TrEMBL record:
It is an enzyme of class 2 (transferase). Pfam families: FGGY_C. Its EC number is 2.7.1.16. Pathway: Carbohydrate degradation; L-arabinose degradation via L-ribulose; D-xylulose 5-phosphate from L-arabinose (bacterial route): step 2/3. GO terms for biological process: L-arabinose catabolic process to D-xylulose 5-phosphate. This is Ribulokinase. Keywords: Arabinose catabolism, ATP-binding, Carbohydrate metabolism, Kinase, Nucleotide-binding, Transferase. PANTHER family: FGGY CARBOHYDRATE KINASE DOMAIN-CONTAINING PROTEIN, RIBULOKINASE. One of its GO terms (molecular function) is ATP binding. It comes from the Bacteria. It catalyses: L-ribulose + ATP = L-ribulose 5-phosphate + ADP + H(+); D-ribulose + ATP = D-ribulose 5-phosphate + ADP + H(+). GO terms for cellular component: cytoplasm.
Length: 547
């Protein structure tokens, strides 16, 4: 018997799972919350410096604590000795990126930079680089840069180049001290092995690394003369392929986790992309939606197409030999969480018995489709696909004095389902077939939500048969890196698991949702495609007021 460990670094916590190599059985798992969570209002207590709107930072020590706590706890839960583990792999939210010194030390860990926001990790949902992202897109379009087509014609504020350019322009001293601009997915592997590789997944999807090269120095210089050497001086590391071994554990890292130095560590990866093989989604047309605080949609195809607003298409970005596509929604579970925390009266929370989401879901499930009279836009964290615009914001239309919390909650759930349908239809309209929808992530546990998604999309929904989809996917890559399987397809066949057709659409509900989806599309065009730029104007007014 041999075992591998998958570690999934999410937005608020990290989780580890111990998996048997022979059949993919999950024998033990553990979750460790980040002590600092997400820094959105101010820097940690030792400085307390306030942060502007749309910032989202993290503390690197929180990631190391996941290795120190979650991995040993998962081993204990599994009843497995560290000596029996042959491989370990990790996945991360993306783009989550940080500035480091030559040896990988994060700038935020140095006393002289502790009060400088730009020295910290920028989490995926840091959206304050939207002006830089707009310039990156506009200049690339003006110059006819061919790599722009691989990103659906739009570059996101969530990605590497926009966030880096923001640092350069807002804190040149931090920029000058930065030796490497590092994806967190690569930093954690670096800390475990002493080897720095940039993984092909984040480099391709988030780092504008297309056909073996980054955007040219001439293009970067036109953005900002001091940005011309960005790729040469701060991204200069070898590219590691998915499932490749990055190295083995150092003595220090092995000691953290109760493992041995012979454990092979795989090249880093993205939480969404590792989930596809775990769901045995290794063939064209199988769209996997990883549903949590946000939703990421990934899929492989045997054709290369330009899909408006896609987050990227990368050769072998998910499995070798196929084009890997990515799209997503910037807010899903985050939106439901915001509503529960800020818009639910005490009378409801008292009746909910500690689980407001389940209580609202139960109340809302009693309603016929359309009975609440509402339509919402799921843009509380901006729109990732297909509009790629984080200046957009949330909307609920149709509220009256009779509107109840469960009405609004249902409208928000439906809005996120409409957003997924819009992504699916955008792929299909671009010539990329979608023939199966597979869901994983924390939200798959909500039957009310899953049925709405089946009805809205008119597609049966399959489920990745694991509560730790990304961690299981990482474990599959660990098995490949350790040599237990020749490639990720073989690992997926032996270790992956999926329940096909777990949820099927109700034809009557689907018909009624078609009418509501048409209204959603009208609002997308009006507010999102410059029919009325009020959302962008309000963002500008807010930023000016908070200076």
């Amino acid at each position: 018997m041999t075992y591998v460990i998958g570690v999934d670094f999410g937005t608020l916590s990290g989780r580890a799972v111990v998996v048997r190599v022979g059949d993919g059985a999950e024998l033990g798992s553990a979750v460790h919350p980040y002590a600092h969570g997400v820094l959105e209002k101010h820097l940690p207590d030792r400085t307390g410096r306030p942060l502007p709107p749309d910032w989202a930072l993290q503390v690197p020590q929180d990631y190391l604590d996941v290795l120190r706590h979650a991995v040993p706890e998962a081993l204990r839960a599994a009843g497995v000795s560290g000596d029996e583990v042959i491989g370990l792999a990790t996945d991360f939210t993306a783009c989550t990126v940080l500035p480091t010194l030559e040896d990988g030390t994060p700038l935020s860990e140095l006393p002289e930079w502790a009060d400088r926001p730009h020295a910290y990790i920028k989490l995926w949902k840091h959206h304050a680089a939207q002006p830089q992202a707009d310039r990156i897109t506009d200049l690339a379009a003006k110059r006819g840069e061919t790599w722009l087509n691989r990103y659906g014609g739009l570059i996101s504020s969530e990605w590497e180049f926009a966030k880096a350019l923001q640092v350069l322009e807002e804190d040149p001293e931090v920029w000058a001290a930065t030796r490497y601009w590092v994806e967190a997915a690569d930093w954690i592997v670096w800390r475990m092995t002493g080897v720095y590789l940039r993984n092909a997944c984040t480099a391709g999807y988030k780092g504008q690394f297309v056909d073996g090269q980054y955007p040219s120095p001439a293009y970067l210089a036109e953005l900002n003369p001091d940005f011309a050497d960005f790729a040469e001086t701060r991204l200069d590391a070898p590219i590691g392929q998915l499932g490749q071994a990055a190295g083995t554990l150092t003595e220090e890292a092995a000691g953290w986790m109760g493992l041995h130095t012979g454990v092979v560590v795989a090249v880093g990866n993205v939480d969404a992309h590792v989930s596809a093989p775990a769901a045995q989604a290794v063939e064209p047309g199988q769209l996997v939606a990883i549903m949590g605080t946000s939703t990421c949609h990934v899929m492989s195809a045997d054709v290369l197409r330009e899909v408006p607003g896609m987050c990227g298409v990368v050769d072998g970005g998910i499995v070798p030999g196929l084009w890997g596509y990515e799209a997503g929604q910037s807010g899903v579970g985050d939106i439901f969480g915001w509503f529960v925390e800020n818009a639910v009266p005490a009378s409801y929370t008292e009746k909910a018995g500690g689980d407001v989401h389940s209580y609202l879901s139960e109340l809302a499930s009693r309603q016929p489709v359309g009975a609440h009279g509402l339509i919402a836009l799921d843009w509380h964290s901006g729109n990732r696909s297909p509009l790629v615009d984080h200046e957009l914001s949330g909307v609920i239309i149709g509220q009256t004095l009779a509107t109840k919390p469960e009405d609004q909650y249902r409208a928000l759930v439906e809005a996120t389902a409409y957003g997924t349908r819009l992504i699916i239809e955008t792929f299909r309209a671009s010539g990329v077939e979608v023939n199966e929808l597979i869901v994983t992530g924390g939200l798959q546990k909500n039957p009310f939500l899953m049925q709405i998604y089946a009805d809205v999309t008119r597609m049966p929904i399959s489920l990745l048969d694991s509560e730790q989809g990304p961690a299981l996917g990482s474990a599959l890559h660990a098995a490949v890196a350790a040599g237990a399987y020749p490639d990720i397809r073989a690992a997926a066949a032996a270790m992956g698991r999926v329940v096909h057709g777990a949820w099927t659409p109700d034809p009557g509900n689907a018909d009624r949702y078609d009418a509501l989806y048409a209204e959603y599309q009208t609002l997308v065009d009006y507010f999102g495609r410059h029919g009325n730029d009020v959302m962008r104007r309000l963002r500008k007014i807010r930023r000016e007021a908070l200076r």
